[in-house]
Amino acid sequence: xxxxxxxxxxxxxxxxAAGDNLLRACLSLGYDxxxxxxxxxxxxxxACRQCAVKQIHGDGxxxxxxxxxxxxxxVAEGMRIAIADPEARAFRAGVIEWLMTNHPHDCPVCPEGxxxxxxxxxxxxxxxxxxxxFTKRTFRNQYLGPFLQHEMxxxxxxxxxxxxxxxxxxxxxxxxxxxxxxVYFGRHADGVLDSEFAGNLxxxxxxxxxxxxxLETDYARKWDLRGAPSLCVHCGLGCNTTVNARAGRLRxxxxxxxxxxxxxxxxxxxxxxxxFTTSGQRLRAPLLRGRPVPPDQALARISxxxxxxxxxxxxxxxxxLEANFAxxxxxxxxxxxxxxxxxEARQMAxxxxxxxxxxxxxxxxxxxxxxxxxxxGEDLPNTAxxxxxxxxxxVREGSFVFxxxxxxxxWHEAAVRTxxxxxxxxxxxxxxxxxxxxxxxxxxxxLAPDDIARLGFAIAHALDGGAPAVPGLPAxxxxxxxDAARALAEAHRPLVVTGTGCASSAVIEAAANITxxxxxxxxxxxxxxxxxxxxxxxxxxxxxxxxxxxxLAALAAGxxxxxxxxxxxxxxxAAAADVDTALAAARHVIVLDQVRTPTTDRADIILPAAxxxxxxxTLVSNEGRAQRFVQAFVPAGAIRESWRWLRxxxxxxxxxxxxxxxxxxxxxxxxxxxxxxxxxxxGAAPPASFRIAGARIAREPSRTSGRTAxxxxxxxxxxxxxxxxxTPLAFTMEGxxxxxxxxxxxxxxxxxxNSVQAINxxxxxxxxxxxxxxxxxxxxxxxxxxxxxYGGGVPAAFAARAGQWLIVPMHEVFGSDELSRxxxxxxxxxxxxxLALADGDAARLxxxxxxxxxxxxxxxxxxxxxxxxxxxxxxLAGLFPALPALPAWGIVAKGSALA
Amino acid sequence: MFSQLRTLWTVFLHLFHxxxxxxxxxxxxxxxxxxxxxxxxxxDPDGEERCVACYLCAVACPVDCIALQKxxxxxxxxxxxxxxxxxxxxxxxxxxxxxxxxxxxxLTPDFEMSEYLRPNLVYEKRDLLxxxxxxxxxxxxxxIAGLAIAGKDKGxxxxxxxxxxxxGLLP
Lengths: 899, 171
Ligand code: SF4
Ligand code: SF4
Ligand code: SF4
Ligand code: SF4
Ligand code: FES
What we know:
Mean pLDDT of chain A: 92
Structural class of chain A: alpha/beta
Largest sheet of chain A: 7 strands, mixed
Largest interface: A-B, 47 and 50 residues
Structural class of chain B: alpha+beta
Distance between the termini of chain B: 92 Å
Number of helices of chain B: 5
Mean pLDDT of chain B: 93
Helix content of chain B: 10-25%
Shape of chain B: elongated
Number of strands of chain A: 37
Strand content of chain B: 15-25%
Number of strands of chain B: 6
Radius of gyration of chain A: 28 Å
Strand order of the largest sheet of chain B: 2-3-5
Number of helices of chain A: 26
Bound molecules: iron/sulfur cluster, FE2/S2 (inorganic) cluster
Shape of chain A: globular
Oligomer: heterodimer
């Protein structure tokens, strides 16, 4: 039971959580108290002086008291404060007036306008007329890269941006410069912001200094943007997003608060990767041998094909559960294959063995509070960025505990940092190459995948002698294993993170042993987090199916005539030669996808699939959380959800069971019915029949403009808005908006709160749980009775080979994900293909950074640029973009391939 | 009885009053400049399009009959790529003019815009944009706003100081 205290606010007695600050307490109770520098995730520093309230002395009359900053004042039993007090009001209005003296006359040409926290707070304090008649200070802007626009004149010097960028996200190339009223927030010189979290500045900054640059090329104001609750589809973490569309185009992606998943932040891959939906690679019409045809003709052809012989299906880790299930249902479970590289399928199976055991998977929120973390083989900032950001906070856990011993509360940000400077919780990172998390790691080891696995097995053995020992471990690794084991054993909430990133099942087996050893040592707080590559990798693994190799073999052998590939580029899953053989042998190749890929180029029939913002469905995240994403708009042309294409194909082929799938709910229910592991997915969000006060939920804000003019050049008769059989949301402004189940929240707005900070009004406590509970449902829960046993597959130590290199995959936050790299803004950040080499190896080959290098791998020769300084161990080389068959041995030579 | 006689007398007297019926269309009514008729988009004193595509008129419009799309010139100046008013919906309330922060959109005393076909009442930017500043001759939004555009750098707008030297150490 949480401790509470009684205080009085404006004469009203209220109960608030003990240890909280006044500002958060007031906001959580629904009071409108203006603030700038405070942020629920960043804590209090008391920089802006906007949150002034009057603290009344003793129990005298209401006028005698003093002005205090609510964000810096802890609540105390019997405290009496006044928000409405005239002196406090005048103080707050005065602060805004100062802040506005230098503000440019920009709102009409400011992309923040209409969702600007500064506008909201100015209105809230009642400052309506400018009295200042003197000159304004001005700044020059900087070029900050493809994601953010900079307009420094609008700054109010609240310091949120530096606190987020440097203190929270660990960025180094952004700071505050100059002095007094000239303080400047930017880089030392024009240039691309390095941090993969820079995009959050657009939401963190309460003004229009940092704004979403891709949005500005196709701009619309918040009141005109139709919203829908969606999910990020660019890695496995399942960050919640709000997608905004207008006039049939996806305009932007915003963070959608989820207390257990992404909190207030997204990575830039998730925020800006949506550009693939409007990229030139997009498929928009069904194609029959390259010729656009009407949907009916394509479906008729498919029904003919299905009547002719056996069809096999290849499901996708980036398609929804419903789409995969529709394919599985169409071709039959025996013919359903997983669109995963064979090695990845083995790694997913290894992860499945851990998650079926006694240890709970940590949601990101728990990872953020872990007090000792071991990362085995994952380059988290590139494979699961939002989790890396959480681990950066986990490192601070020790400092919070230390500060608490001094009586400093968690939210007292600057004081905690000053008091607990050297105190850090241990983070131990073992990866083949340097990661951007190393700067906060207590230990960072650079090892070959097999050595990472050996380290892991050794840690497990050190934790529990019953776990298999590792023979012949070098002394330095043995010492590291001891240290890591001690750190994990001493922690209350140790966390082990591993995944498919270094393409090694042995690493995952090692992590399994560690989690089991922690469990056996009686650590109920021990957690595990598996990092998987795609947004529905976990869902596909739960669904299960045969391996891709089986599919390719069946096609090559002619035992199946037809291939239906769902949102999968086979060339990313298997060696090109094998795919070529299989596709050449297949009589019919049907591909459903959103974008052109090498696989669609070989297809006879292509069906254009809806992208995440154009579709509804369920995805299962790393954490095993099934979450629903909701359509924001109906795409132009013949684009449809994959499950609808497959249903229509089933109906065209005369399959009566498909006729009942009138909406998403029926498909989700069928999936839950056929796959017992997924029984809970129907509860991921309310069904399409859900109504509030008899009404659907409106996707458009009530102030949406242009309804009778937007399409008037086509027809002056306004078209009937589309129906939505799949969700309880309406496509127009007609409907309900107010408190609602958070899985349905199309956008956040409250009277007086037009900015993203309106989310305050949908939380039980600001920065805490959402009203209505966390969206989604966990499908994978620990089984304490599971009879798990230690795995014994300790690999042999990595031995470098003369003249050969073990090629391991390298991941890039901008570039490794198949879809987001097609977004124009993200494409600017994708590095050129490279080969990372150990410094010593590069020197021996006479290679410097950026030199041309040739890699001979599996009979092919790749021209790459060399990268050094990533700390790789000798004999190992990292390849970006990764290939499906890694790790593999290759030959490296200086120079470029003959043209 | 008396009241009826008085009414008849009053009506009779009207025979000798000045006639108020205007012989429209031969004779044009004399309307004040603030009359709310056909909407135009004006230009600033420099001859540039005044509208900055801020969407405020569109959101103020009670019948939602204004639609536009913001675009940006290479120098950073915002303008509407298209600007459409569906006059078959417009109720000439003047809210758009009141909302406009740049004096771009203005209602004029011209009301002669009847059409036989509703689509002809859909006006695009080419139909709306006039070549002068309309009712408000002086105002030039970009001379006051902080956004830099071609010909007006940072620090050159009204009441602006030259840009700060971030590396300067002087107090
Ligand atoms: S930051 Fe806010 S207040 Fe300032 S110009 Fe932009 S919209 Fe207006
Ligand atoms: S740039 Fe934005 S976040 Fe940073 S200090 Fe200025 S107003 Fe605050
Ligand atoms: S890419 Fe991953 S970390 Fe980034 S926003 Fe998407 S789900 Fe979150
Ligand atoms: S309010 Fe004025 S400046 Fe803004 S879009 Fe309308 S006409 Fe243009
Ligand atoms: S929010 Fe309290 S001082 Fe800034």
